[in-house]
Amino acid sequence: MGVPGGGDERLDLHHAAIPLDDPATAAVALEVARRGCVLLKNDRGILPLDPGTSRKLAVIGPFAEQTPIGGGGSSYNKPWRSVSLLDGLRQIFGGGQIEHSTGMPQDNSTAAFAGSQFLTPAGAPGVQAEYFNNLFCRGTPVLTRVEPRLEQRWGSGEIAPGVDTAGFSVRWTGRIRPERTGRHVFYQWFGGPFRVQVGEQVVFDVMDGADIRPPRAVLELEAGREYPVEVLYRRSGGFNGACVGWAFWDQQADFRTALEVARASDTVIFCGGFSSQTEGEAYDRSFAMQAEQEELLLALAEVNPRIVVVLTGGGNVDMRRWLDRVPGLLMAWYPGQEGGTALAEILAGVVNPSGRLPVTFERRWEDRSSFACYHDADGDRRVLLADGVFTGYRHHDRTGVPPQFPFGFGLSYTAFAYRRLECPATMPAGGALTVRVELANTGARDGIEVVQLYLRDCEASVPRPYKELKGFVPVALPAGESRSVELTLREQDLQFFCPRRRVWVAEPGRFEVLIGASAADIRLTAAFQYC
Asked: What is the secondary structure of 124-170 as a DSSP string?
């Protein structure tokens, strides 16, 4: 894309009619965020919050003021402006009703990289760096020097004089001397395999195949004591870089402030999960939230049981430690530049949530169909995904293992009833079959329901899933109204790939139509004969 003044005049002229902060684009982003968020839990009707009766709202967590808009990597785009959840809530509730506390350090890795002080093994300021023209820090280094900080961003360019860009490794050694006793947050950013050890503890390690690289870790350190530091790095195939920094975290003070705010409030909104710093392409993340986030959330639930979790991230999260302790849960995913406004509107009931899960949320990662596939017994770093078509809700149907939240699930502030399923008795080969169902909004609010059609092949000649999604329709209904909804099946919806004949086939026989609100909430069924 051309940048104003960047020399690409053709592109500049092409985009000249579109303002940098485009209202039309913002409107689309807002509607996408409104429709995409999924309300997963709403016990005791904690939501929606009424701005007229909520005297004080506590907004706590690392992502309230800096709400993540997207995951990390090449998909990330920085907008000209974005709205945080805190900003969105203030627009609706007013600043006087809201108290805010992060409860923990926000990401200040840039400041930590620039400000961390190291000592060389000889006691001089800086860190000793040894560069090798091999991938294993072996033999004699081709370059040894003292660097002021452990902060290098080489990209795809030259590393240092005499260092082979195509095959190099680096070892940094030094010491740190904390000024305060307590918890210290260590930050990392690397463009390839690395290991960071502080004292006797390995803080980060993705040198030998592991690929979960948390951007930060917390260590207990003593003031005045010197801790040896060793960092190993091996070139990546593309963008190279290595940064390590650390900063003191007064956890007791941060937690105390957050708990005081929560205790004095009617309701707590906790904003946690993942961000572009903790989730992105080319590496794995942990299944659970960071430990300090879980610790804070559990502590907040102790002092104020009226708590709603707003969760950001690209997928499921281990909720076993805290889900039973919170009555409200809203899955925000990565809601984009207008996400803060959309989330606040849903929390306040200005918008009725209508998002549905496009995946199954399992309770444990061991419950995934592919769990056993990733154990590399022979060490060849190759795995075989052996679950076939039995993935997601198909796996849970087959095994009977209950999910945390099923595929297609999502709550609303109103209620819907499914009535009078009409289904023809037969479907001719090469033809189509249309089913009709009456949907009624039986609640007090206007809303959107997503009617889902699943199909079961009762007589397949090969192992088939119990049911498969074949269609869905989002239906907007005013309170108290009903509507007939149509969904059509065609021959291709009945087909499966036959491994023996190596073609797609639709076999004659009995099929069942299952209409529901999720893969685990089937409301109506009917059968037809395909012939």
From this structure: -BSEEEEEESSSS--SS-SEEEEESSSEEEEETS--STT--TTS-EE
